[in-house]
Here is the input.
Amino acid sequence: MMSSNKRKNVISGISIVVVFVLSAIYLFTPMVDGYNWLGWLIGILNLIAGPAVLIAYLNEVRKGVFKDVEEAVSKEE
Amino acid sequence: MIDFEKLWTNFDWVVLALYFVGILLVGISMRKRAGKSVKSFFVASRRLTIPILIGVAAAGWYDSWTIVGLAECGYTMGIVVIAVFVVPEAVLRLPLAAIIGPHVRDKIPDWVVTVPDMMAYLYNGKVKLISAITYIANLMYDSALLFAIGEVLKLVTGMPMVLSLIIAGAVIVAYTALSGLWGLAVTDLIQFAIMTVSAGALMIGIINLSGGLPGIFDTVGKMDPTLLKPMGNMGAMEALAWIISACAMYCEAACYQRFSAAQTGSDIRTAFSIMLSMGVTFSISMVFAGMAALALFGDVAASPAEGFWALVFSILPVGMRGLFVAALCAAVMSTVSSDWLIFSTCAVNDIYRGFINKKMSEASTVKGMRVAVGVFGVLCVVGTLFWADGIANAWYYLGGFLFSMFFIPITAGLFYKRKTAMGGLSCIVYSAIMYVLWEFILVCPGGIPTSLFVSVTGAIIYFIVCNITYKKDSPLQDAVV
Here is the structure.
């Protein structure tokens, strides 16, 4: 079972690779004319991105992250 | 000339109004939590988790310039903006996300919550004071962003620009002053979701309307072949200046505020790298939207902005248009509210409490910051007068200014072992003066972009002065490295 930090490092590593891959696609594909699949890729990725983050956030709220924060802040003070 | 007022319906008004009301309600609900302390107000008590960090980071890094400005660039410049801005923006900001952000969060003491605080920590109080004053001058960029809201609301709804500026400004002041970064965290997340869904719907709509990207590229190529050339008509120097402006985020106060609000450095690395992978897609969709606007409406639109909004209103159904305009307002408001929060902290916590009234209580400081948010709101609305000709150059100038002044003092300050306070001060003062001189008085002699000349010469001055004034056992050397 991966530790939390190790999991985060793996996720950030994958994201960094994705940045490079997407950047290469977006940079070089228009130079050789526009492709329909590029438009669909961009559209679908955009449609997924925001709601995915929103769902992750709602999941955290459901688990009680703001309640944990409230208690932690009260303890500090 | 396109008559937008016929395309804007009452339902779109309802959607827009509900968005503004929703934002205010979030601010009111977060008021108590935000008011506990400066740390709570400004950096959400450093408790933001990864999903929230993604939202606040994206909403801060991708603002109305990313929507309207990049679309205008796609319309007027074509694919060259991908090579000189979109891709450099994603790739060159990776070290900021993966190295500098975590380093700042994990190594710098807890009392450092603003960039001026960081300047005090890395150098001394004089550098902090100049940083605080300079960051407030960035209000001009916020005026440009606010202008974008006023312009689009005037274009599509007929609302007088002054009225839309006052309403937008008042809403931002209200929810920022009430809820600080806690409120921003929630609203930024919602706004991020609205922005990406709108961009996705727009992209798919463009494919359906035009038959596909190849058709758009064909039409654009016939209108102006240079728009499809990888470097267009852009010279090397101008390209370099654009790439430099993409690096200006290294000096953005809002960026470091987000870092300070994270729980750990590894959270920053994860959240910001995910956010960059989403952001590059969002940015490219706006460039293609601009090109599509040219292809489909270039012959009837009076301006790039008009063409872009004609495209949006042709593709998106009733209601979604209101949501897209709300997305633009969201992008502007998240950046502007964050900046006003920072400016109020700089003015009250860093300058007034730091140098004039050192015994000011936490509660009074928070109260003062809330008042300052209102003051900056008014100044920002007045400042919109400067951007009457459009905002395409706003980031080029102001991003370039920030980069020239602060890139070396911040990055070298974090890692350079021989840094000195005199080196930091010399670089910042020189860069501020030379930027104005080179850009507005000498008007870029030799065609050398101001940001390039000033940052290179500023860096030389920084390292020379640091090495002249370096003392081996100086207390500065204990900081960060």
User: Anything to note?
Assistant: The domain at 4-393 of chain B is CATH 1.20.1730.10 (Sodium/glucose cotransporter). Confidence is low (pLDDT under 50) at residues 477-481 of chain B. Chain B touches chain A through 58 residues (CB under 8 Å).
